[in-house]
Design a protein that fits this description.
By secondary structure, the protein is an all-alpha fold. It has 2 domains: 80 residues, Four Helix Bundle (Hemerythrin (Met), subunit A); 41 residues, no CATH class. The chain contains 4 helices and no strands. The longest helix is centred in the middle third of the chain and has 37 residues. The relative contact order is 0.12.
Length: 138
């Protein structure tokens, strides 16, 4: 059954967590984000393809190379983000979206609104980051 969202709909804590409307809201939010990233990536690709001109001035050439490296990093970041968005959409489909992969507890609407690809509750994420910092110092 397709869910139609009102134009100004925002998920609320007054509703059952991850009900059909919540899932559709986040699915559409993720699809819009992915579409935006893909449009930006197309622009990046066009810029990289146009970059075949050799600059006569060494400073201009260096500047062009820095710009190309930055565009490539940005494109790689977008590619990784798109993979995370696809994974989040998969979790919506399988019913695990919105629940912490570590504790199984609800992640929380405010966190999902801010970071719709989140896989852990804020508390679990902070614990995870503390553990990473501790192990990195070894």
């Amino acid at each position: 059954m397709a869910v139609t969202l009102p134009p100004d709909y925002k998920p609320s804590d007054d509703e059952p967590f991850m009900n059909e409307t919540h899932r559709e809201y986040f699915r559409l939010k993720l699809l819009r984000w992915k579409s935006e990233l893909l449009r930006e990536a197309e622009g990046t690709l066009e810029n990289l393809q146009e970059g075949g001109v050799q600059e006569a001035d060494i400073a201009d050439r260096a500047s062009t190379e820095v710009d190309r490296a930055l565009e490539l990093r940005t494109r790689d970041r977008a590619r990784k983000l798109i993979a995370k968005i696809d994974a989040a959409i998969g979790r919506i489909v399988d019913g695990s979206y919105g629940y912490c992969e570590e504790t199984g507890e609800p992640i929380g609407l405010r966190r999902l609104e801010a970071r719709p690809i989140a896989t852990m509750s804020l508390e679990a994420q902070e614990r995870h980051e503390r553990m990473e910092r501790t192990h990195r110092q070894d």
